[in-house]
């Protein structure tokens, strides 16, 4: 069965600083990989996804992630964090074809200091 | 992308009663929907896959007699928590897949007193 590990429960960065959120996955085949953001009182929003092809994926809000098969990782990055980026971030792996089921990591809470 | 709504957004019920949560696809006919639950400050856990016109598929450890799922039409799936107890208090979220992307509803917060 697939699993997702987000090693960092809580990260605090200063506004304008760079950000990297770590994600490691376990899956037997080539995975579908996702990053979602959840703000208080908001639903989950997809930041970016990887299905195949270019291993560097660009997403919304200036986020990007890199799929590294050798490290079973899909880390999320942003060069300059904004205060509005404060939220909970979830990495997920999908399996099961077009109607894939998602397995989520435990999430990383991002706090942004002014 | 697909727009998914849930109703109610928040419900409080007494222990022992049942509560129904609706998940609607507003602009897309979905043969498959998913139900997740999220405990406070924790991750989302897949509960079941809802299949239009057939029985839902439950994940291991999820009691199918307690969490009744009905996907009677291509735009509506319902989750009924039967004989609810305080430990069922959680955030319930549905989703569907369209065009390779999974779209989530805003969630329903259930509080059982």
User: Number of DSSP helices of chain B?
Assistant: 0
Reported for the largest beta sheet of chain B, the result is:
7 strands, mixed
Overall residue-averaged pLDDT value of chain A: 93
Q: Tell the overall outline of chain B.
A: globular
Question: How would the global form of chain A be characterised?
Answer: globular
Order of helices and strands of chain B: EEEEEEEEEEE
Helix count, DSSP H or I runs of 4 or more residues of chain A: 0
Helix percent band of chain A: under 10%
Please provide a written account of the structure.
- In chain A, the strands form three sheets. In chain A, strands 2, 5, 6, 10, 11 and 12 form a six-stranded mixed sheet that branches.
- Chain A contains no helices and twelve strands.
- Chain A is mostly beta strands and 114 residues long.
- Chain B has 113 residues and is mainly beta.
- In chain B, 0% of the residues lie in helices and 56% in strands.
- In chain B, a hairpin with a 5-residue loop joins strand 4 (32-38) and strand 5.
- Chains A and B meet through strand 6 and strand 11 of A and strand 5, strand 9 and strand 10 of B.
Secondary structure topology:
The complex is a heterodimer of chains A (114) and B (113).
Chain A: E1 3-5, E2 10-14, E3 19-21, E4 24-26, E5 32-38, E6 44-50, E7 56-58, E8 64-68, E9 73-78, E10 87-95, E11 101-104, E12 108-113
Chain B: E1 4-7, E2 10-13, E3 19-25, E4 32-38, E5 44-51, E6 57-58, E7 67-73, E8 76-81, E9 90-98, E10 101-104, E11 108-112
Provide keyphrases for this structure.
heterodimer; A: 114 residues; mainly beta; six-stranded mixed beta sheet; 12 strands; 54% strand
């Amino acid at each position: 069965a697939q699993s997702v590990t987000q090693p960092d429960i809580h990260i605090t960065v200063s506004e304008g600083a760079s950000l990297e959120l770590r994600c490691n996955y376990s899956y037997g085949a080539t995975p579908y990989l996702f990053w979602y953001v959840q703000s208080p009182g908001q639903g989950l929003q997809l930041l970016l996804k990887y299905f195949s092809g270019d291993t560097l994926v660009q997403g919304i809000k200036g986020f990007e992630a890199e799929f590294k098969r050798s490290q079973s990782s899909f880390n999320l990055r942003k060069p300059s964090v904004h205060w509005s980026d404060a939220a909970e971030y979830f990495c997920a792996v999908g399996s099961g074809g077009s109607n894939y089921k998602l397995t989520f990591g435990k999430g990383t809470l991002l706090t942004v200091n002014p | 992308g697909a727009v998914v709504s849930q109703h109610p957004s928040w419900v409080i019920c007494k222990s022992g009663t049942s509560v129904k949560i609706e998940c609607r696809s507003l602009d897309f006919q979905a043969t498959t929907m998913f139900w997740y639950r999220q405990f406070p400050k924790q991750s989302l856990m897949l509960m079941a896959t809802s299949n239009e016109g057939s029985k839902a598929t439950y994940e291991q450890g999820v009691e199918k007699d307690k969490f009744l799922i009905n996907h009677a039409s291509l735009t509506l799936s319902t989750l009924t928590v039967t004989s609810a107890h305080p430990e069922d208090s959680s955030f319930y979220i549905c989703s569907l897949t369209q065009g390779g992307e999974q779209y989530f509803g805003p969630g329903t917060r259930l509080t059982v007193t």
